[in-house]
Amino acid sequence: DAGQLGDALQLLHGLVTTHPGDAEAWQFGGFLALSHPELLDVAVDWTTEAVGNLAGNSDVLAQNAEALLLSGKPALALPLWQQSGVSTASRKAAGILCQLALGEDVRPVETGEEEVSREFIRWYQRILQYGRTDVAVSLNQAMSNLEIALPTAGRVLRTAMAEADQQ
What we know:
The chain is mostly helical. The chain is built from ten helices and no strands.
């Protein structure tokens, strides 16, 4: 419940205040805040503070990028995705999502395109879950670039949009 979540975040805040280099505590706090859309502002503040204390930690950078992306700030999130350095399918997809939302051209993904496409669709769904229709509209406007970079994701989204238009 919300009370227990607040208590957990307060305990973690106390821990990171006395041990600012505790990456696990920062990451767990970020995970808790990011798991609840109503705590997105807390997630942005928490993960930004974590980056201030652990700037070289790729997971902390990725959490901050996630919070910024979900709060509709792809221009701030993109450099953090790029700095995080770990090239998982999810992080690649998030970076591509930011680039497309910003109107940037994206090169086709050749290795692991299907997996990156699946992750892109998951990110797109989260954007909608967090109420970021502004970002979704930008992505919809970049559909031709998406279809070049991630053909599978492009087909899935185009089909979903066509079905939504028919209803």
